[in-house]
Specification:
Strand order of the largest sheet: 3-2-1-4-5-6-7
Strand content: 5-15%
Helix content: 25-40%
Bound molecules: nicotinamide-adenine-dinucleotide
Structural class: alpha/beta
Distance between the termini: 63 Å
Shape: globular
Largest sheet: 7 strands, parallel
CATH superfamily of the largest domain: NAD(P)-binding Rossmann-like Domain
């Protein structure tokens, strides 16, 4: 018998046996890492994945997972998934709305209406529809059920050439806070994970940042590196667990301190500057050799 009843709760907090978890876009990247983490923690994992090859790979990596090949942007897909989950487990403990993409990176003035609609639906519309479709199943799971929306550091700052993406991610933040209030009295929690640049097929670091520039990583990010999908997976397990029992309507900034830095960088000497300069061959920090 422990003197502190919470201690025993904490010891088993990351055991998700008997829980059902739906991850949208769980084929690769952040969604895949989150799905694998929940599967390793004992959950029955359901993945909604559009890409057949990625679906196959996820299935091979997680034999116990149910991988459903679908496009979450299509109307009616939420209802289809809800029916499948209801038939198999009767409830949903955790909904991870992970699908999202900048889709078009272009100055706002050059964006066609249809392209803007596409970005909004990929990052906001489908997430709203999926969430509404899953609420009855989350209610069946009861208090302790929760929703995790993957947003971005761009839900908390601006990003040039991806303004509609940023608008959608900020909107998800507002939605998350509001829904947290609506569902709070039922004990259903709603939070976001807001990552900075994380090495995934969508944001493949070797493609985005030339190898020779990766040496600057430790100065760009306070914790000295860009993200790995497992960083978000850890955050998702925490948010879905009893460890976060009193956490709702908030964002977990999984960003190595980037949002806190807000434009501050370290010099090679370990000092800080918010006025980095650009030279012909890249970023130069005042007071340092180019
Ligand atoms: N990687 C980053 O640096 C980064 C940074 C900030 C935010 N995010 C956010 O994290 C989330 C995941 O990003 P990622 O980098 O892992 O993405 P990713 O593109 O590497 O992986 C997304 C997965 O979702 C699947 N998918 C895409 N559209 C789908 C659809 N309509 N229906 C079903 N499945 C679909 C893809 O096939 C893929 O398996 C997104 O919401 C993204 O905006 C990522």
């Amino acid at each position: 018998m422990t003197a502190n009843p919470q201690a025993s709760t904490f010891a088993h907090a990351l055991d998700f046996s008997g829980k059902t978890v739906l991850v949208t876009g769980g084929g690769v990247g952040i969604g895949r890492a989150i799905a694998e983490a929940f599967a390793s923690a004992g959950a029955q994992v359901v993945i909604a994945e559009i890409d057949p090859a990625r679906a196959d790979q996820a299935e091979a990596a997680m034999p116990g997972a149910r991988v459903i090949r679908c496009d979450v942007r299509q109307r009616g897909v939420g209802a289809m998934l809800a029916e499948r989950i209801a038939a198999e487990t009767g409830k949903l403990d955790v909904l991870v709305n992970n699908v999202g993409h900048f889709v078009h990176a272009r100055p706002f003035a050059m964006l066609e209406d249809e392209e803007a609609d596409d970005i909004l639906d990929t990052n906001l519309g489908q997430l709203l529809r999926m969430t509404r479709a899953m609420i009855p199943l989350l209610r069946k799971a009861g208090p302790g059920a929760n929703i995790i929306n993957v947003t971005s550091i761009e839900a908390h700052r601006g990003i040039p050439y991806c303004s509609v993406y940023a608008a959608a991610k900020w909107a998800v933040t507002g939605f998350t806070k509001s829904l947290a209030l609506e569902l709070g009295p039922e004990g259903i929690r709603v939070n976001t994970i807001a990552p900075e640049t994380t090495d995934t097929p969508q944001v493949a670091l070797d493609f985005m940042i030339p190898r020779e520039n990766r040496a600057h990583e430790e100065r760009w990010i306070p914790l000295g590196r860009f993200g790995q999908p497992s960083d978000c997976a850890g955050a998702a397990l925490y948010l879905a667990s009893p460890l976060a029992a009193w956490v709702t309507g908030t964002a977990l900034n999984v960003d190595g301190g980037a949002l806190a830095a807000g434009g501050w960088y370290r010099t090679p000497q370990g000092e800080w500057t918010n006025v980095p300069l650009i030279s012909g061959n890249g970023l130069v920090i005042p007071g340092t050799a180019a």
